[in-house]
Amino acid sequence: xxxxxxxxxxxxxxxxxxxxxxxxxxxxxxxxxxxxxxxxxxxxxxxxxxxxxxxxxxxxxxxxxxxxxxxxxxxxxxxxxxxxxxxxxxxxxxxxxxxxxxxxxxxxxxxxxxxxxxxxxxxxxxxxxxxxxxxxxxxxxxxxxxxxxxxxxxxxxxxxxxxxxxxxxxxxxxxxxxxxxxxxxxxxxxxxxxxxxxxxxxxxxxxxxxxxxxxxxxxxxxxxxxxxxxxxxxxxxxxxxxxxxxxxxxxxxxxxxxxxxxxxxxxxxxxxxxxxxxxxxxxxxxxxxxxxxxxxxxxxxxxxxxxxxxxxxxxxxx
Amino acid sequence: xxxxxxxxxxxxxxxxxxxxxxxxxxxxxxxxxxxxxxxxxxxxxxxxxxxxxxxxxxxxxxxxxxxxxxxxxxxxxxxxxxxxxxxxxxxxxxxxxxxxxxxxxxxxxxxxxxxxxxxxxxxxxxxxxxxxxxxxxxxxxxxxxxxxxxxxxxxxxxxxxxxxxxxxxxxxxxxxxxxxxxxxxxxxxxxxxxxxxxxxxxxxxxxxxxxxxxxxxxxxxxxxxxxxxxxxxxxxxxxxxxxxxxxxxxxxxxxxxxxxxxxxxxxxxxxxxxxxxxxxxxxxxxxxxxxxxxxxxxxxxxxxxxxxxxxxxxxxxxxxxxxxxxxxxxxxxxxxxxxxxxxxxxxxxxxxxxxxxxxxxxxxxxxxxxxxxxxxxxxxxxxxxxxxxxxxxxxxxxxxxxxxxxxxxxxxxxxxxxxxxxxxxxxxxxxxxxxxxxxxxxxxxxxxxxxxxxxxxxxxxxxxxxxxxxxxxxxxxxxxxxxxxxxxxxxxxxxxxxxxxxxxxxxxxxxxxxxxxxxxxxxxxx
Lengths: 318, 526
What we know:
With 318 residues, chain A is mainly α.
């Protein structure tokens, strides 16, 4: 059995997501700026920012504990690993068997747990506000996410991503109402999880309205770079997840030629690009939600997920 | 649950203990004082402490609004506006003992003004309910720099008002903020996300403008007055120039008045456009800001071609205008106002038809009519809560009596009312700009000021800037220099009300409320 090539492909995927993530953030920013009639910063600006931040030494609060210093590495590792598990341009990755949707959800949840802890660590009020808001959002987003996972598991008979994708590519998949509901739920969750409008404003400078930004307000230097990078990776993760599950076409089969892999890569870029345009347009036409409306928003995601699961129970063909 | 009685804002003034039926009218009290002749154009009288106290009762009773309260080394002055008679006046109290009866104990809006007077001049407001410093944070080289100065004693901890209740937490915000904005400290006490009390601490941008103005040559003083608050520089220059002209007893040429009004109306449109966009942007609706910013930028560039400066700084000087704008630039300005007027319905349409935005602004940060009346709050903030006061209409000055415009007013007092009013005011100001350009009188735009044998005198002026009424008082000495000058920003009576407007809202809505007020830090801290 050839072990070299899948390992290489897996390594390529891990490097690809790492390199692609800041570009995605930059593209969404650029697109939003263009939609608003502004020139906007260059697409490569997030890379420059990361480079700048990595060369700066972090400034730590006097009362910061070891946790505060460790969390950026933990968060980055969890999110990177989770992103590496989602098939991007090909199937049959060696990590495939572990690419369990519940595991991915858990890794994202763990990263959030540690980030919220570190936000409380130095004891500033903004960290506390950010952490409490983030946990409030997560307490609603995570159950909704699990319901989406259940729906997919019921449809495909597995919580493993490559198995789900393989099933959806098979002729027996067909169009299903429960899948459409799951997609709607997942889109709402993705917005909440990535601190996008209307839940959180990624571009805000107003510390009192921040959620994610408030949690990382005390971070600087390479710590901040890691957290920013992790945030970009998470956005890419959700793009990849939605792309792999709901637009599963164009993925290279295991053991195919280099050309097939390249084609898979181009198709992946196309999916991500389309997603970025859709996100930018969506965000431009919307104001941020009042904080206490967020439960309604995520409640809708939860209900959609529940409905999808129930439909699947009621009728096997929906 | 928070103890709401602790959080009530602000403590209602105690009713005057004496059993008089009606609050005294300040205009009548003024007649009982010693009238001063060298003061123009409003009546000024020197009063005794008893009359001063009665004036405080009159203000508390609501018969008059407090326009300004300021000090100088030997006394304090009070400017008021009597709504029923449509008259304004100035009362002066000499303070040989370095103290004066506090008006703040009867009329809370005077509290911060009195704290500022004590910090700057060392005059003690007797009986004041708030002994804390306001502008002086203990980092100046001297205490009481404008009065009998004393060596500094260094910073002391600032005591915020106590709030008691279970599960309350404090959120200190500023003076350094995450964005690039002016510095101010906001101390929130919240029950979860709900604000139970907000207390402001200002004074971080105190530059000592009033001290710099003492003894300044007129040219330098004009420049200083133009720099009190950069975004409203034209209105400040207008107020200062009018006060100086009143003190000297001259009048600017007719053309100058029209051009000054033109500058102030351009400034109003530009700032309101910026505010409408910025308020929406604080609700993360960046589209509106992009739209408004383009219009504002085009207007500022046209102002640059007309007056040689985007913000029209230093264009309005005592005696007239620095220069008259070229005719073709004015023609371009008139065309642009037409374009902006045509774009306004679109702004209104986008604003009204975006449900996510409406959900944020309607019912947020409600300010009651009682409070705006008590504080004599001017500008959009007062008018959005039903206080119909506009210096251009109520204490009219040239050229406004000859121009057609209406003053829109709303009753709701929420963020939505303040945004909508700004859009309506833009409309009115565009109409004014067009009328001014079409009806510009002939003649010179500048009349030289007398350089020698100036008769010393005092002058006051009230000019409606985009934030509200800007008050200017100046005393000119016999050599034509500024002896003393006081400039009161409209924000003095708006900042305290922000504390009331945010009560019961959530912390996350504060930036939106704050932006809908858009008070000046620099103009207030002076």
